[in-house]
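At this stage, I wrote out one protein's amino acid sequence and its backbone structure tokens, and that material follows here:
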Amino acid sequence: MVAAKVGILGGTFDPIHFGHLRPALDVAEQLTLDHIRLIPSAVPPHRAPPQATAQQRVTMLQLAIKNNDRFVVDDRELHREGPSYTVDTLMSLRQQFPESPLYLLLGTDAFVEIQTWHNWTQLIELSHIVVMQRANETLTMSDELTGWYQQHLAVDADQEQLAGAVWPVDVTQLAISATEIRENMSKGLSVKFLMPDAVINLIEMLGLYSSRS
């Protein structure tokens, strides 16, 4: 039996929106991933703490992917003390999926800052790295990162490896920001068509992100 190819998308998901989901689905289809694990961060090292609680964010994720079995909600970071370092998450996933190729999905903004991440050079030892980018987008990287990127750039044969390659993938770019969603909701503006209706309904029911919350 061939081991599953596992995608990994982390974030605060505060809240989850189509700017997360559509590019991830593009990657799953282009790299023929069996599933993508959506992993909400507990203590994000590079941004402010989430406004919604851990359970609220998990529930939003579950509602968002309810009708798509290619996505899985994975809450392992919420049960770990300290900052939610990606390298620790990948080590945990590698133990769970020892025979599976792992693919860490990153947007271009995150990828060009990867050198600031905790033990960043270990990431490629544990997983492939997928850079989700616009068609014909040029990455602005440091000289060191440019050399590292070119050294690890994927070729077709890398599909057989468990980790070690960088995969640039053109995806549908939706200029949707969780920050703008929260701001719009606090002003009473509509966020319809930016996120799944089930998520909007839950947010409204709980009064999340409103000026009264």
Summary: The chain has one domain: 6-174.
